[in-house]
Design goal:
The chain is mainly β and 136 residues long. 7% of the residues lie in helices and 70% in strands. It is built from one helix and eight strands. It has one helix spanning 2-11; strands spanning 23-32, 36-39, 42-45, 49-62, 65-78, 81-99, 102-119, 124-135. It has a six-stranded antiparallel beta sheet with strand order 1-4-5-6-7-8, with no helix packed on it. The chain has a two-stranded antiparallel ribbon with strand order 2-3. The longest helix has 10 residues, at 2-11. It starts with a helix and ends with a strand.
Length: 136
């Protein structure tokens, strides 16, 4: 199974619709709801629902591989109170499968979030963030 995965990764490194030297502007949105308890390797103490719409610029350093920066205004709702913030992120994107005009990718991002209130309530108004996940 590992050999098949490795072969698939190597085959998906070149070609496709995202070529070395391309630039891409995109808009992406998110919504999340708190998770409380054990999650993967940390103890999640989420309390604030949040949603945001951000703007990204990406540069393709290789076929299907990009680095990028993004800015996302974010709205929070915690214990009935609404407040806002902004997140600056940097990240990598790998398009591991492309067919005609459809591509499936994996993002790995990290950043800094500043809010008008502490998030979570017992936290601070600034936080480091990360995101990992697929998209299309």
């Amino acid at each position: 199974m590992r050999a098949v995965f490795l072969l698939a990764c190597l085959c998906a490194c070149h070609g496709g619709m995202h070529k070395q030297g391309d630039k891409q502007w995109s808009v992406q949105g998110h919504y999340s709801t708190p998770i409380v308890g054990d999650l993967l390797w940390w103890d999640a103490k989420g309390e604030a629902e949040n949603a945001g719409i951000g703007v990204w610029n990406r540069w393709y350093l290789e076929d299907r591989w990009a680095i990028g920066i993004g800015l996302t205004p974010t709205w929070f709702r915690e214990f009935g109170k609404n407040f806002g913030g902004a997140e600056f992120e940097v990240g990598m994107r790998w398009h591991f499968w492309e067919w005609e005009k459809l591509g499936i990718f994996l993002d790995l991002n990290g950043g800094f979030l500043y809010t008008s209130e502490d998030v979570p309530r017992a936290g601070t108004d600034w936080n480091f963030t990360f995101a990992l996940g697929p998209g299309f």
